[in-house]
């Protein structure tokens, strides 16, 4: 069987290039992320570096699995006739499965052979990115370890074999008689598995949309950010039904080429769905998650702006001044909250603010009644609103303190603990930064007061400060998202290229038939291009549908948390992604159809295997 | 009628495709014996069900009712694993479109059924089989480097390498020019003379005339049977049934 696998790979290499590249990229990313993860855990680096690398590692495995398995599924569908032939001359189901597994092992080894050296390049890029985004100090380097060779080869083989398992099961059910049909009644495209997966993930996305508004600011955001993925998988599962219908709505123009392209999209629904699938995932992930992130940031800024009744924010301690009605000076401390005891003891790092409760209430529009030996739960949540907590500050243990009050949780978070004055020893406060929210007295001259305040520290208008503050809070998240989304985008594009290349490789004969019917080579290529654009258009539409599920969750969550539904759509990003998608599908279609029509049609039609 | 049991026997076999008003009964209650050691041609107008009949007889197509016996083995009750084994050992196929595996050389294609059966075919057996179809010098060529007639002869070698009880041939000359077709038919004739059971579907009276007997099919039913006729006789009978 291994000999057959080898011969199959050599003969049909165009079908496998994509799968090989996906395996190689998967191996490279896993190797690089793993080495960096270990290096980061050992060297001192930003706390965000390790979780970020963890996310990239998980994402790389998931995406590699997704792309490789869909590539294999498609190649198997394109080779049904070959596999049926093997069954016809006496191949058993097990032998068909073994043939495909053998191919997967060879691809896994090949992918690892390319992926290990490529991983060194990826590591250089990842290290540069992490230094650039300040996840790690400038001196940080990833260290090579010899044992990673074993891990990488194992990863390559495991990814490829896992990717082929479903396809191999499906292939083993190919009936021998299918070898005798020219094209065969294309295997049913909406399989039971697709229905089950589609409905399952649709249900998952729906559940997240329904539950997100009840999850509070942090939980709601997390759930809304996770809607796009299951929604995209659901849409992809129903792709063979949806893509051809939508693709026909794309204006093809009249004429014979338009009607040929339209007929092809309708006829080859499996191929159309395969090209559309990674694009749908790309759009849903990038547009859905970026849109959700930006909307939550905007919603947080709006919420803060509505609840903050201050005119200026000064980075420093402001005493009572002429023209100033209220000053809420807030000193920020890194605190630890300890809950439970003994084995179950848990320590959480939080931010604590030392406040003047009366001034805080005026400036932030929410009463907070805390004094003496007690604390209040702040807008950042993370602490129970009742009972007691043990609070530790650097250099001071405040002991067990009752939580006597709380302010509403905010979209943009903030401090988790509010401490009354007098609770914290002066020594602990000495080095801590203080920020003052200043409300002007009625009729005061704003610019004069601003000039006066400048002697206590940098002065911002409340609006400017809120925006900068929210953006700074979100920047770490955004950077992680950028790295992960960049990775997802790369994989999705590889998936699209795979599908088009595989599709075209099996279309030589169809193209040749069109040419002997009287179409010129240019017309065949143009018709394939039209078809690619129609499918891309449908994919953009369906990706937007999946992204919209995330937007529903965003609207419901922001409305529930802040009382005002907020949605900020990333139009420039959407336009950029659409342009990239159209360019990639267009160029790939052009190259593959030109290459598939290189030989004169008669040589293809005469030489039948 | 000889006393030896039939190579393949069909008893009341029916096969219908589709359901409701669009249902088509391709094979309609056919009872038929294909004699051992003889070459039987199945003829009929297009759509008469001759390919479906062949597929049912070879265990490639499920039958709705009736029984199919290969020697004394009941194909209708055989599972997938048993049918797979039968294809490796007791049945050979030749088709109009050759159906060789493009990635393998002629030699590898011929050796494939033996290798699938877990045997290590000796080079001499494979070469001898290729030699028997006159292609010993083409062993290392891939299918696309061979002419249609040569590819069909490789397909016959592949079918014969397991020494099957029955060779099923579906329009084996349908895609060949008359010279290549004559070579293939001569080959089949020689095999039949040596005792090989052959069941062949064809629409070419010239090809059918080379067989020992011809069965005529119309609307899924056997309507006539002719033995030892020449091409003219077969063509006349076919024309009569097509009228």
UniProtKB/TrEMBL annotation, chain A:
Residue ranges of domain ABC3 transporter permease C-terminal in the record:
55-174, 484-601
Its transmembrane ranges are 53-77, 98-124, 144-168, 189-212, 232-261, 273-292, 480-505, 532-557, 569-591
Q: Where in the cell is it found?
A: Cell membrane
Q: Which residues form a coiled coil?
A: none
What highest taxon heads this organism's lineage?
Bacteria
Q: Where is it mostly found? A: membrane
Membrane topology of this protein: Multi-pass membrane protein
Keywords noted in UniProt? Cell membrane, Membrane, Transmembrane, Transmembrane helix
PANTHER family linked to this entry: LIPOPROTEIN-RELEASING SYSTEM TRANSMEMBRANE PROTEIN LOLE
As for family, the record states: Belongs to the ABC-4 integral membrane protein family. LolC/E subfamily.
Q: What name does the UniProt record give this protein?
A: ABC transporter permease
UniProtKB/TrEMBL annotation, chain B:
Q: What is this protein called?
A: ABC transporter ATP-binding protein
Looking up PANTHER family in the UniProt record yields: ABC TRANSPORTER RELATED, IMPORT ATP-BINDING PROTEIN
The question of whether Nuclease is a record keyword is answered with no
* Keywords assigned: ATP-binding, Nucleotide-binding, Transport
ATP-binding among keywords: yes
The residue stretches assigned to a coiled coil in this entry are none
Q: Name one GO molecular function term.
A: ATP binding
């Amino acid at each position: 069987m291994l000999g057959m696998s080898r011969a199959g790979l050599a003969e049909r290499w165009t079908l496998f290039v994509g799968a090989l590249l996906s395996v190689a990229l998967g191996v490279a990313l896993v190797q690089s992320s793993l080495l960096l993860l270990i290096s980061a855990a050992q060297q001192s680096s930003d706390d965000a570096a390790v979780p970020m690398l963890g996310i990239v590692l998980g994402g790389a495995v998931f995406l590699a699995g997704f792309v490789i398995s869909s590539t294999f599924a498609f190649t198997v569908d394109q080779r049904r006739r070959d596999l049926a032939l093997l069954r016809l001359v006496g191949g058993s189901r097990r032998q068909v499965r073994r043939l495909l597994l053998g191919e997967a092992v060879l691809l896994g080894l090949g992918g690892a052979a390319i992926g290990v050296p490529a991983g060194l390049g990826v590591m250089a890029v990842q290290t540069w990115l992490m230094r650039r985004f300040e996840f790690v100090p400038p001196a940080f380097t990833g260290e090579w370890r010899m044992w990673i060779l074993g891990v990488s080869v194992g990863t390559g083989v495991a990814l490829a074999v896992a990717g082929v398992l479903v396809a191999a099961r499906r292939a083993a059910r190919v009936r021998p008689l299918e070898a005798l049909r020219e094209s065969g009644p294309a295997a049913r495209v909406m399989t039971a598995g697709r229905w089950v997966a589609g409905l399952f993930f649709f249900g998952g996305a729906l559940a997240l949309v329904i539950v997100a508004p009840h999850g509070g600011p942090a939980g709601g955001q997390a759930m809304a950010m996770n809607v796009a993925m299951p929604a995209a998988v659901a849409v992809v599962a129903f792709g063979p039904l949806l893509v051809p219908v939508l693709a026909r709505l794309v204006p093809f123009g009249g004429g014979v080429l338009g009607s040929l392209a339209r007929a092809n999209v309708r006829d080859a629904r499996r191929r159309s769905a395969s090209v559309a699938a990674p694009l749908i995932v790309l759009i849903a992930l990038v547009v859905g998650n970026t849109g959700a992130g930006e909307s939550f940031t905007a919603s947080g800024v709006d919420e803060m702006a509505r609840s903050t009744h201050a005119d200026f924010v000064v980075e420093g301690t402001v005493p009572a001044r002429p023209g100033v009605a209220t000053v809420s000076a807030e000193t920020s401390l890194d605190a630890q909250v300890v809950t439970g005891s003994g084995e179950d003891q848990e320590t959480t790092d939080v931010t604590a603010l030392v406040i003047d409760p009366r001034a805080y209430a005026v400036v932030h529009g929410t009463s907070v009644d805390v004094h003496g030996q007690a604390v209040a739960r702040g807008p950042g949540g993370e602490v129970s609103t009742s009972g007691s907590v043990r609070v530790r500050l650097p250099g001071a243990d405040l002991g067990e303190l009752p939580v006597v009050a709380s302010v509403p949780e905010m979209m943009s978070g903030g401090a988790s603990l509010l401490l009354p004055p007098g609770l914290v020893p002066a020594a602990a406060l000495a080095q801590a930064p203080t920020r003052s929210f200043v409300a002007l007295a009625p009729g005061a001259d704003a610019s004069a007061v601003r000039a006066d305040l400048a002697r206590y520290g940098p002065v911002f208008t409340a609006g400017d400060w809120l925006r900068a503050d929210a953006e700074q809070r979100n920047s770490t998240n955004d950077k992680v998202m950028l790295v992960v989304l960049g990775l997802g985008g790369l994989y999705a594009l590889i998936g699209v290229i795979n599908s088009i290349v595989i599709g075209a490789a099996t279309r030589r004969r169809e193209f040749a038939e069109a040419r002997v019917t009287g179409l010129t080579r240019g017309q065949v290529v143009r018709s394939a291009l039209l078809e690619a654009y129609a499918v891309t258009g449908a994919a953009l539409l369906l990706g937007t549908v999946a992204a919209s599920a995330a937007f529903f969750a965003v609207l419901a969550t922001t409305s529930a948390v802040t009382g005002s539904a907020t949605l900020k759509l990333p139009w420039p990003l959407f336009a950029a992604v659409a342009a990239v998608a159209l360019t990639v599908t267009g160029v790939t279609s052009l190259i593959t159809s030109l290459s598939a029509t290189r030989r004169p049609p008669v040589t293809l039609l005469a030489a039948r295997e | 009628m000889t006393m030896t049991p039939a190579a393949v026997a069909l008893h009341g076999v029916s096969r219908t495709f589709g359901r409701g008003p669009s249902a088509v009964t391709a094979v309609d209650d056919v009872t038929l014996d294909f004699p051992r050691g003889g070459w039987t041609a199945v003829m009929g107008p297009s759509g008469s069900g001759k390919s479906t009949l062949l597929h049912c007889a070879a265990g490639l197509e499920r039958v709705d009712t009736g029984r199919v016996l290969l020697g004394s083995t009941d194909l209708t009750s055989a599972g997938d694993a048993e049918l797979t084994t039968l294809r490796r050992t007791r049945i050979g196929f030749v088709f109009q479109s050759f159906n060789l595996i493009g990635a393998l050389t002629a030699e590898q294609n011929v050796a494939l059924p033996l290798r699938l059966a877990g045997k290590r075919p000796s080079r001499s057996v494979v070469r001898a089989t290729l030699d028997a179809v006159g292609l010993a010098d083409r062993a290392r060529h891939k299918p696309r480097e061979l002419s249609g007639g040569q590819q069909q002869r490789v397909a016959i070698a592949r079918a014969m390498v397991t020494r099957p009880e029955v060779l099923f041939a579906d329009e084996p000359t349908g895609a060949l020019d008359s010279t290549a077709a004559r070579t293939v038919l001569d080959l089949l004739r020689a095999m039949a003379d040596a005792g090989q059971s052959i069941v062949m579907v064809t629409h070419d009276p010239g090809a059918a005339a080379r067989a020992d007997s011809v069965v005529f099919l119309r609307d899924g039913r056997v309507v006539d049977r002719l033995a030892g006729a020449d091409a003219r006789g077969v063509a006349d009978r076919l024309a009569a049934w097509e009228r």
